[in-house]
Structure to design on (152 residues):
């Protein structure tokens, strides 16, 4: 039996929930992150049909929907495709502000990787500039094992 609550005051409690969690990055993500950590190498996967090279690697081609079993080692250099400048502090974006976040198309890849850009000021960064990955000395098996990309 339903109860009519139209005279009931709706209470709203504003708060912030911080939920710690863990999740598997899967076999493809595991290999990618392990190569960053142990060998400072960037690997992608290649589609057997359209030959698109994905980085970060994908298990399935997003164009042909077939499994990508072939691994391709990529250079740690590429071209800045686009960027934005973050000017506020956030736990999600480490480092000093302003911080440049860009999409870097590594040589040999067909998709770009999002990462931080350093070594250039926001007023001097340009789409098309050549960049090189800088690896952290202490790597832990995460995307931030690439510390940032810098101009070359």
């Amino acid at each position: 039996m339903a109860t009519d609550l139209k005279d009931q005051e709706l209470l709203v409690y504003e708060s912030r929930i911080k939920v710690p969690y863990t999740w598997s990055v899967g076999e493809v993500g595991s290999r990618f992150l392990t190569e960053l950590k142990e060998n400072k190498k960037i690997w992608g996967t290649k589609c057997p049909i359209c030959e698109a090279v994905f980085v970060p690697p994908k298990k399935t081609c997003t164009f042909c929907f077939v499994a990508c079993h072939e691994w391709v080692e990529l250079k740690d250099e590429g071209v800045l495709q686009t960027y934005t400048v973050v000017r506020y502090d956030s736990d999600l974006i480490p480092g000093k502000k302003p911080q440049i976040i860009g999409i870097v198309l590594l040589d040999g890849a067909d998709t770009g990787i999002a990462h931080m850009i350093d070594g250039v000021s926001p007023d001097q960064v340009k789409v098309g500039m050549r960049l090189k990955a800088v690896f952290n000395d202490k790597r832990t098996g995460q995307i931030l094992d690439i510390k940032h990309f810098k101009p070359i």
Summary: Strands lie at 42-46, 53-54, 70-74, 77-86, 99-106, 113-117, 130-135, 146-151. Helices lie at 26-39. The longest strand covers residues 77-86. The two ends are 71 Å apart (CA to CA).
